[in-house]
Structures are given as structure tokens and as C-alpha cells.
Amino acid sequence: MAHPAQLGLQNATSPIMEELIAFHDHTLMIIFLISSLVLYIISMMLTTKLTHTSTMNAQEIEIIWTILPAIILIMIALPSLRILYMTDEFNKPYLTLKAIGHQWYWSYEYSDYVDLAFDSYIMPTYFLEPGEFRLLEVDNRTTLPMEADIRMLISSQDVLHSWAVPSLGVKADAIPGRLNQAMLASMRPGLFYGQCSEICGSNHSFMPIVLEFIYFQDFEVWASYLYIV
């Protein structure tokens, strides 16, 4: 999860987020090179009075500074389109989880199981255990199996919300009367935190999301236990 004074993105736990971080670094390097070149040219123009007469009206220079930006844009666009199509790719998900936004909590429904649903509210500060995070912990964590493709169906019952977990590279709007779809997967077990990312009212800041990824066999035990309870 994020920590104070963090400059970069959160550590990736899904293949999509790893691709997004790589694309971020790729684009940032291009921006850095362009900025350095422009700064160098500006500094040279301000510190020298010499003028090269052959570049005052040269077609070759104009061709270069027209084609070069187009090439740079292609270098940025192709990886971006590749990741965009990867985020919309759904290959036989193992599990379907439906998240419904309310003012101001989330409801979750496991569509592949009968009557497996619960509400997830923010944990009050005076109920927190040592090591739990204020404003990020919930009373009912969403438990999911790791190393499995999970399809998220996201909607809302009242106003606009947004279901976002940065370390998984997932962010989808929750719109009343409409189902949005997203795919997520975690390559390691652990707790991953998110929040509502759409201003939805006075308690918008108090809609945390906690996903707990566990091993597949442990997930089956957890689901069976809920049936017994």
C-alpha cells in the first residue's frame, strides 16, 4: 500500500499493473529526454550570439522536427493501445464478484455461490486492532483466491461511485442502472487496499475497499464455512 512521502506508484500485484508501471516508466523517460533537449536548446539560445546561416531557412530541419514528434507519439501510442486491449480481455474467469456502491459502503455478491453476499462498512477507529489502518480497514474483507482470473461487475444503487484498487491496476465507475466490467488477478497473497474514487457525498472519504487474496484451497474452506454459518 502507499506510504508517506511516496513518489512512485504502488507495488504491482497483478500483471496488468506491472504493464502499467512499465508504460509509466517508458513514457516518463521520453518526457525527460524531450525536456532535457528543450532546456539545452533554450540555454544555448540565451548564452550564445552565434547564428548558423545555413539553418535559417532549411527544409531538412523542418522535415526533421515534423517527423520526429510523430515518431515519438507512435512510440507512446502503441504500448498504450496494447495495455488498453489487455485490460478489456476476459478469458473464462474463475469467479465473478459483483460490487454495488451505496452511500456510503460497498455490497459484495459472489455470483457463482448461492446466497453468498455481505456489506462492507468502514471500521470505526475505536474498533481497530494493532496494525490496522485508520480509514482503510473494513468490518468485512472481500476474500478472493490468488492466481485466478476474477471478473468484477460494478454498479451503484444511488449515486456515482468508483471502485478502485491501485495495486491491482483496477478502477471502474459504479453507475446506477449500469454494470461495468473489469478483470483482476493477484499473483501473491496479502491485503490490498482501495477507496471510492468518485466524489459521492459528504462521507465519500469513508468508503474503503479491502481485498484479501488467499490460496485457492483456503478460499474453498472460507466459502464452505460461510455456508455453514
TrEMBL record:
Q: Name one GO cellular component term.
A: mitochondrial inner membrane
* Reactions performed catalytically: 4 Fe(II)-[cytochrome c] + O2 + 8 H(+)(in) = 4 Fe(III)-[cytochrome c] + 2 H2O + 4 H(+)(out)
Q: Where in the cell is it found?
A: Mitochondrion inner membrane
Check the record and name the PROSITE patterns matching this protein.
COX2, COX2_CUA, COX2_TM
Give the co-factor note: Binds a copper A center.
List GO molecular-function terms, semicolon-separated. copper ion binding; cytochrome-c oxidase activity; oxidoreductase activity
Q: Which cofactor does it need?
A: Cu cation
A Pfam family name for this chain? COX2_TM
Just give the chief location class. mitochondrion
Q: Where is the Cytochrome oxidase subunit II transmembrane region profile domain?
A: 1-91
Keywords, A to Z, come to: Copper, Electron transport, Magnesium, Membrane, Metal-binding, Mitochondrion, Mitochondrion inner membrane, Respiratory chain, Translocase, Transmembrane, Transmembrane helix, Transport
Q: Give every Cytochrome oxidase subunit II copper A binding domain span.
A: 92-225
One Gene Ontology term of the biological-process aspect is: ATP synthesis coupled electron transport
| Family to which the UniProt record says this protein belongs | Belongs to the cytochrome c oxidase subunit 2 family.
- Its job: Component of the cytochrome c oxidase, the last enzyme in the mitochondrial electron transport chain which drives oxidative phosphorylation. The respiratory chain contains 3 multisubunit complexes succinate dehydrogenase (complex II, CII), ubiquinol-cytochrome c oxidoreductase (cytochrome b-c1 complex, complex III, CIII) and cytochrome c oxidase (complex IV, CIV), that cooperate to transfer electrons derived from NADH and succinate to molecular oxygen, creating an electrochemical gradient over the inner membrane that drives transmembrane transport and the ATP synthase.
Identification of the protein by name: Cytochrome c oxidase subunit 2
| Provenance organism | Brachyteles arachnoides (Southern muriqui)
* Gene for this chain: COX2
